[in-house]
Amino acid sequence: MTKLANLPSEIKQYLIVTGNYWAFTLTDGALRMLVVLHFHGLGYSPIEIAMLFLFYEIFGVVTNLVGGWLGARVGLNRTMNIGLGMQVIALSMLLVPNEWLTVVWVMAAQALSGIAKDLNKMSAKSAIKTLVPAGAESKLYQWVAILTGSKNALKGVGFFLGGALLSLFGFQVAILIMALALLLVWIFSVVSLKSEMGKATAKPKFTEIFSKSSTINYLSAARLFLFSARDVWFVVALPVYLASQFNWDHWYVGGFLATWVIGYGAVQSFAPYFTGKKQGKVPDGKSAFVWAGILAIIPGLIALALVSDWHSQTVLIGGLLIFGGLFAVNSSMHSYLIVSYADQDGVSLDVGFYYMANAMGRLIGTLLSGWVFQQYGLEACLWISSGFIALAAVISLKIPQHQPMTQKTNR
User: Fold this and answer.
1) More confident residue, 94 or 60
2) Would you say the pTM of this structure is higher than 0.90?
């Protein structure tokens, strides 16, 4: 504790922000697994279970826009704490008796959880910009990569945690344990986070939620296609394909995907070392183009193997692992670029707009994943994925082709 007290202020604030993000992410991943398994046990159909998460994704689009504006006006400590508090409320909503757990009620709880998640994520990513000295781009990249990668690894751990809690304690007690634990985190955060973090010098108007920076707009468009490309085959098509074509049971499918997410997060954390950190380099638009171009090839190769029925299972699993590693590097670079290019004064406005595009990409990918897979199969989902990534690569050419520097954008 003495060593922690002697740390520089920005390090302590970074650790608190990261700890908050970790705690939230664990409950977010665990809650998703709890809801899927519990409501499957109650007899809900797959479509009904999918509907439970619809508002979770839709509200992410709105929350990132409004949340970025709110963070610039009231401070990122408040938006992060609001997110933590809302997650406690969302969890508490599920403590009612089973007969009250209607589709509408659970959708409302999931909507609240989705809002909470995006407030928390936007606040955590934006806060790093305020804690790293201007011009320290290598440190900024490393801190963003650690935060992003650890979050995704912990989300995978959360999948396992949800299953374990459900097996050991049942749905109600598992939810209560998570709600109480997160409540303690929320109390600590309210007391510990700086009140001025991320607050803009001049309070922005609501009309300023849309970025006027061309760099932010191009980066956001690339992010939209990048995450649409992942979710168009990963969210619905892949789990159903693994279960129906390879005869994997639900636990095997869930365990494999959870492990994939953990590995994906680990690669994200080390992305700076794969992209030139040892040579003192940080990513720019050219880096985003090159890495996206490489990634675009992978889904197409998997699709060709599936169409020709050439070692389908081996190629799909191996391809998924390669895709995960390359996608993790792309995602980590993008996460750094938005924080680097965001306006220092009111950083959450740009970050919120960017993650609105991220949420829109997830929503588009999720919707396409179910429809395209049902109509045309996994191969079509993979071809669309390659096309979307290629678009992300082309758009990345519009991002400045030089090392990002802290800059003032004109709103």
Assistant:
1) 94
2) no
